[in-house]
Amino acid sequence: MDTERIVHILIAILYSTKNHLRAEWAAEIIPGTSINVDNGGVLVKSEYGDLLPKGLYGCDDRGLGLPLQLTFFVEQYIKRSFDQGVFHAPQASQMQVQLNTLVDSYGKMETIRLTPIPIAHLIHQKQVLALFGCVLPFALVDSMDYWAIPLVSLVMFTLYGIDGIGSQLEDPFGYDRNDIKMDFIVEDIRCEMGVLLEEWKKASEKGNEMFISKRQGADTINSV
Question: Average pLDDT, whole number, for the chain?
C-alpha cells in the first residue's frame, strides 16, 4: 500500500510540474483547484487531486513549489524502506540518485521559464534588422537591378522568421501548437504507470510474474 501511494505521488509530481511551469498554482494547494495567474479566476483541476497525500497543505505562499514538496514524500519512503530492509543499500542509493535527477530536471525547466530574453536585446535586435533591411537594397541595386527587390524581401523574410522562432522558443511550456505537448506526455505516463501498478499488484497477490497468467506460467514451467 505504501508503494502504491508513492507511485501516485510520483505521478502527481508530473502534474504539479506541468501546472507550475504554466504558472497555474494556488496560494495554498487545494486538491482539485488552482488560480489562473492571468485573470485570477479559479480553475477546476480534478485531474490529479486524488493522487495527492491526504491532508496535504501547500507552501506556495512561502515560496516552496508543490513538485519539490512532493519529492520529500518519496525521499522519506526510500529511507523508510531501507530501514525496514525492503531495499538493499545499492538499490536505495540508486533510487536517491534518480530522485535527485528528477529534482535537477525540475530546476532546469523552471530556469528556462523564469529566464526570458532581455528586453534590451529584443529591441536592439529588431532595430538592427530594420536598419539592415533599409540599407541592403542600396547595396544590391547596382549589381542586381530589379532583382534586388525579391532578393531583399527573401532575406528579410528569413531573418524575421528566425527572430520569431526565437521568441516562440523562449517559453515552450504553454498551450501554443508548437509548444511541448505536456498534457499528452503526462497523461501517457499516468496510463502506463497505472497499467504497471495494476499488473504489479496482481503479480504480488497471485505470486506469479508480471504480464503472465498463472496458468500460462505453470504450463511454461512444466514444459521446461
Answer: 82
